Amino acid sequence: MIWNEYKAEIQEINLSTITTQNIKLCILREDLNHPEISxxxxxxxxxxxIEAKELGFKKILTFGGAFSxxxxxxxxxxxxxxFETVGIIRGEELENKxxxxxxxxxxxxxxxxxxxxxREEYRQKDxxxxxxxxQKQFPDTYIIPEGGTNxxxxxxxxxxxxxxxxxxxxxxxxxGTGGTIAGVIESSxxxxxxxxxxxxxGDFIVNDIRNLTEKExxxxxxxxxxxxxxxxxxxxxxxxxxxKRINQIQLDPIYTGKMVxxxxxxxxxxxxxxxxxxxxxxxxxxxxxxxxxxxxxxKNKTLIE
Length: 305
Ligand SMILES: *Cc1c(COP(=O)(O)O)cnc(C)c1O
Hints:
By secondary structure, the chain is α/β, with parallel strands linked by helices. The protein folds into 2 domains: about 10-35 and about 155-300, Rossmann fold; about 40-150, Rossmann fold, CATH 3.40.50.1100. It has helices spanning about 40-55, 70-80, 100-110, 120, 130-135, 150-155, 180-185, 205-210, 235-245, 255-270, 290-300, and strands at about 10, 25-30, 60-65, 85-90, 115, 140-145, 170-175, 195-200, 220, 275-280. The strands form 2 sheets. It has a 6-stranded mixed beta sheet with strand order 1-2-10-7-8-9. Strands 5-4-3-6 form a 4-stranded parallel beta sheet. Helix 1 packs across helix 6. It starts with 9 loop residues before the first strand and ends in a 7-residue tail after the last helix. About 45% of the residues are buried. One of its GO terms (molecular function) is D-cysteine desulfhydrase activity.
């Protein structure tokens, strides 16, 4: 019912505050594809949940950290599609803080059951013997990896682009595990270059992407992660707030904020040839803002507006 085809609206971004070489910058509003399973997580879950249903599973199990968009999306999708959901959550200390954490609170309301594990144990999340142990502990569950990335997720992400997207020279997206960009690369056209902005530190991601797609029309920018996953600073928060004031579009500080910041820097530095057209994918993630603001407030920092 909710897995209908969705073609996100393309909106033009105001570039009047910077000098450009006649660049046209647009954003694809994937964040509006569903109110609760928003953004790329909707795309990544679609074929996984269809598969789980076809195979007769009643329960979905997956992994995530304290503010995980994937945990929130899985909990909501499970509720809508009649699956029980189990979240394996990184950090035992969170067990007593479910109601203080907006992501976990939301997931709990959707019916998700939690299983909290230490950071050390969490590191084994992709290892076969650990998964086997989980499968025994939670029998008859369909297991989706952290961030939701697997072949069925990539199949879903291929559906992000549609005819109006193929006129652009460049398509930009934020990167976590690389599943989303792999799907976008797969469905892109040969004349297009896909630009990826990892929100994590480290060069491993290029190899990860190469393992997920054979096409090579992509470029990764490793200088806009702001210190690593979940790390933000005053400059980034101010950027996200200014962007919203100018364009009436909310970005998240973990993924899309860093990607759009990166694109603006590249435009200012004349990375793009004259008259280039760029489409940025708004992959959603707005549910995480409440949790981030709580952290920022504790540290007496500027909040996301
Ligand atoms: C999860 C997420 C990403 C990263 O997607 P991957 O497929 O893991 O690379 C990007 N943007 C947002 C908003 C996300 O929630």
